[in-house]
Amino acid sequence: MRRSKGRTGRKRRRKHLQSFMDGVNCSHKLEYIKLKKWLKDRGFEDNTLRPAEFRGTGRGLMATKALQAGDLIISLPEKCLLTTTTVLDSSLGGYIMKWRTPVSPLMALCTFLVAERHAGDKSPWKPYLDVLPQTYTCPVCLEQDAVNLLPEPLRKKAQEQRMMIHELFVSSKAFFSSLQPLFAENTGTIFTYSALEWAWCTVNTRTIYMKHPQRECFSLEPDVYALAPYLDLLNHSPNVQAKAAFNEQTKSYEIRTNSQCRKYGEVFICYGPHDNQRLLLEYGFVAMDNPHSSVYVSSDTLLKYFPPLDKQRKAKLSILKDHDLLENLTFGWDGPSWRLLTALKLLSLGADEFSCWRRTLLGDVISATNQELTWNVTAKICHFLIEETQQALLQISQLKRSKENLKPHLALVEMLHLEDLKILQKSAEILCNSNMAT
């Protein structure tokens, strides 16, 4: 009897441990029950996936059975998709069609989301709206103290994105006012900046690509968005592959996995071969050990290591600019990129070597001196970025202690820097080994 009890205990512990590793099933929660019923009414049936909470990724979808490469993991009927057709078929449609300046497809979707969220229980889309995030962690939503600690190229892009949303808000005020007959409250209190920011982040982080025909009532920006309830719970992994497209025969958006997934494991899709800066900017998260990730070197950092009095400096910079070699200069898991080394090789040319600049762009070795100088400067830049990253991590650590409310935002920025540090340390190791070999 005792032995049997021990086996049962071990079994239970194993089961508990397995459940902890796999994730916690959330399909019993009211918002998911309502969402599944709502989807079923629109023709969606699914026994392959269930909502769950995972330790590493948060909310996601769990496999109820083992999946093999080629398996159809989800098939969402067109009726479940939220597109610009949905918007035009709603009460907003007439106002969009007669508005003097055509609104963009993106703006139409944002307006619809704000209006439906405001409608609350009266919205037919309420079961979907209830499972959407209330807040986002994209840089446009981060507190300024956290944004200031982002790597310089990402900080610049985040500020550009914030400015773009602000301009979108200001330029849309008259359009929002034209919708006043649809609301009892003043449109100014409904279509606020924070409401638009939430809607923009919803569209930007969650839409799937689906091409729609160009319509006269919209501006010329491509109409390629579709919000896909339930399907958008699938998280990203850079290490999986999946085939996703709208199937004209079944009139459903389908995803087939090209990877295996064990029973009760989290089912992933790949949003694209994006580095961590792009993932944080567009989706608000960072992927651990992302094979596509890299650390960017700004042109200001690049030029710090070359004498300002170099007579050919201006000409060298002009050549680099003409050949698009002042942007996207990176360190990756396999060391400095070809673009970075080529830019540094050209900047390292001596006065007597400058006439050979075309050969540097072809990857030729110009001289042993040029080669050595290029490697030395590359190593210096790598070590400078390591120190800069460590300094940022120290600042984040101090700020986390003094500003409790910023902890979630700072944790995300910290994760980005920790991943960058791993890449830079790996690059430093490669540079050191190459130098020794040379």
From TrEMBL:
EC code: 2.1.1.364
Localization of this protein: Cytoplasm, Cytosol; Nucleus
GO biological process: inflammatory response; methylation
Keyword line: Cytoplasm, Inflammatory response, Methyltransferase, Nucleus, S-adenosyl-L-methionine, Transferase
Record-annotated SET domain positions: 47-272
InterPro entries assigned: Rubisco_LSMT_subst-bd, Rubisco_LSMT_subst-bd_sf, SET_dom, SET_dom_sf, SET_MeTrfase, SETD3_SETD6_MTase, SETD4_SET
Broad class of where this protein is predominantly found: cytoplasm
Gene3D superfamilies: Rubisco LSMT, substrate-binding domain, set domain protein methyltransferase, domain 1
GO cellular component terms, A-Z: cytosol; nucleus
Reactions performed catalytically: N(6)-methyl-L-lysyl(4)-[histone H3] + S-adenosyl-L-methionine = N(6),N(6)-dimethyl-L-lysyl(4)-[histone H3] + S-adenosyl-L-homocysteine + H(+); L-lysyl(20)-[histone H4] + S-adenosyl-L-methionine = N(6)-methyl-L-lysyl(20)-[histone H4] + S-adenosyl-L-homocysteine + H(+); N(6),N(6)-dimethyl-L-lysyl(20)-[histone H4] + S-adenosyl-L-methionine = N(6),N(6),N(6)-trimethyl-L-lysyl(20)-[histone H4] + S-adenosyl-L-homocysteine + H(+); N(6)-methyl-L-lysyl(20)-[histone H4] + S-adenosyl-L-methionine = N(6),N(6)-dimethyl-L-lysyl(20)-[histone H4] + S-adenosyl-L-homocysteine + H(+)
Domain of life, per lineage: Eukaryota
A GO term, aspect molecular function: histone H3K4 monomethyltransferase activity
Pfam families per UniProt: Rubis-subs-bind (PF09273), SET (PF00856)
PROSITE patterns documented for this protein: SET (PS50280)
Primary enzyme class: transferase
Subunit note: Forms a ternary complex with TBK1 and ZNF268; the interaction with TBK1 is ZNF268-dependent and leads to TBK1 monomethylation.
Family the UniProt entry places it in: Belongs to the class V-like SAM-binding methyltransferase superfamily. SETD4 family.
Identification of the protein by name: SET domain-containing protein 4
